[in-house]
Amino acid sequence: MPAPAVGEPLSPGPAMTTIYHLRPEGIASGDNGYGRTENPTREILESAIGQLEGGTCLTFASGQAAITALFMAVLRPGDTAVIPSDGYYSVRSFGGSILSELDINVIEASTAGPYPSFSGVRLVLLESPANPGLDLVDISAVATAAHAEGALVAVDNTTATPLGQTPLTLGADVVVASGTKAIAGHSDMLLGYVATREQPLLDRMSQWRKLAGGVPGTFECWLARRSLSTLALRLRQQSANAAALAPVLRAHPLVSRVRWPGDSPFAPQLRILPGLVSFELPSATHVAAFLNAATLVAAATSFGGVHTTADRRHQWGDSVPPGFVRLSCGIEDTLDLVADVETALAAASA
Ligand SMILES: Cc1ncc(COP(=O)(O)O)c(C=O)c1O
Questions:
Q1: How far is the CA of 286 from the CAs of 248, 255, 256, 258, 317, in angstroms?
Q2: Pairing with 210, which of 77, 250, 257, 311 sits 20 to 30 Å away (CA)?
Q3: Virtual torsion, Cα 94, 96, 98, 104, nearest 10 deg
């Protein structure tokens, strides 16, 4: 929220403009000139996310736009990057196609390790908790090891959100994230961001954003700023719902391999656990029966929204079994959600 000013809106509306009145004598440093480089609504959002992450934030049109901005700002032909083998699949796709074509060596490491030697590595990207398997990694330990070899450390903070963890205070050089998930939180817009305390890195990513042009829309920025006001409340309910569902799923005979971030030895790294739990049913048909019987669980991809959704990740090409489900808990009443999942599991078992 901007500083109070008598007579001004408590919550300013979106500044829907691409251009600004310029000084007739010519633009001066600090003036707003053009919407791709300056927008007051975007800057309010960036200031808010930056405060939460503990660094300076730049927002992007999507999480992919933010992550690839980091790659393109930092990596050069001949460099080596380490990325998660069990993280968001489009990041791996970008590594395997565009980065490889640029002669950038991409090594995949699973979030839980083991990690390769960081000798000669330019950038290490971590994702903790990783999507969709929900493994965690000790961010400080990897950052120390990577820094010892001169590598930059980035953390994808999408699943945790800055209320769950602030990687910059755990030793990371830069945070990347999709704001499309819990930050925006209502399954109605795309957003991404980076945050860092390193001015030269910020400048390079800012230059990339300006020249590649992947800025978020003004209205999206306004919606996301509005959503931040309820992020803590939403996360609390999502987290409580996942914590309640994890033992219910684990106790059910049809369900196997329940994964919940609270079980990780690194769970204390998180101030609040995300509302995510993954599990396996015997087959895709069982998942369909579960979803057909559920009334509070929608079949949908993505996560972090106010409605509970279930995504069978195999259909998108993740290397998980066909019956693998990533459940993103919404903000429904916990007893209602648990009852609905129990009913749906009973139907899938019949
Ligand atoms: C962990 C993670 N990072 C990045 C992204 C990409 O974000 P976006 O879809 O906003 O481009 C996603 C999307 O699911 C994600 O789960």
A1: 17, 10, 13, 16, 19
A2: 77
A3: 120
CB 177 within 8 A of CB 125: no
Mutate to test the pocket of ligand 1, among 89, 128, 180 (most ligand atoms within 8 A of CB): 180
Question: Nearest residue CA, atom 7 of ligand 1?
Answer: 63
Contact assessment for residue 42 and residue 209, using Cβ atoms and an 8 Å cutoff: no
User: Cis before residue 129, ω within 30 degrees of 0?
Assistant: yes
Distance 252 CA to ligand 1 centre (A): 30
Q: What is the largest CA-CA distance in the chain?
A: 77
For position 3, what pLDDT does the model report?
82
Distinct helix (H) and strand (E) counts, the chain: 9, 12
> Tokens 């230059």 map to which residue?
207
Closest C-alpha to ligand 1, atom 8: 63
Count the neighbouring beta carbons within 10 Å of the beta carbon of residue 229: 11
Helical residues (DSSP H) of 252-333, grouped into ranges: 284-293
Predicted local confidence at residue 20, as pLDDT:
98
Query: For atom 6 of ligand 1, which residue has the closest CA?
Result: 63
φ, ψ of residue 250 to 5 degrees: the values are -65, -35
Q: Cβ < 6 Å from ligand 1: which residues?
A: 62-64, 67, 88, 127, 131, 156, 158-159, 178, 180, 190, 192, 302
Among 264, 251, 294, CA closest to 111: 264
Q: Which two tokens stand for residue 100?
A: 């490889």
* CA–CA separation, 276 and 238 (whole Å): 8
**Cα 135 → chain centroid:** 14
pLDDT tens for 39-91 read 999 999 999 999 999 999 999 999 999 999 999 999 999 999 999 999 999 99
Q: What is the mean pLDDT of residues 155-170?
A: 98
Q: Quote the CA–CA distance of 127 and 150 in Å, as a whole number.
A: 20
Cβ-contact 130, 163 below 8 angstroms: no
Q: Which two tokens stand for residue 82?
A: 């380490």
Compute the distance from residue 233 Cα to the ligand 1 centre, in Å.
Answer: 22
pLDDT score for 251: 98
Average pLDDT in the 238-261 region?
98
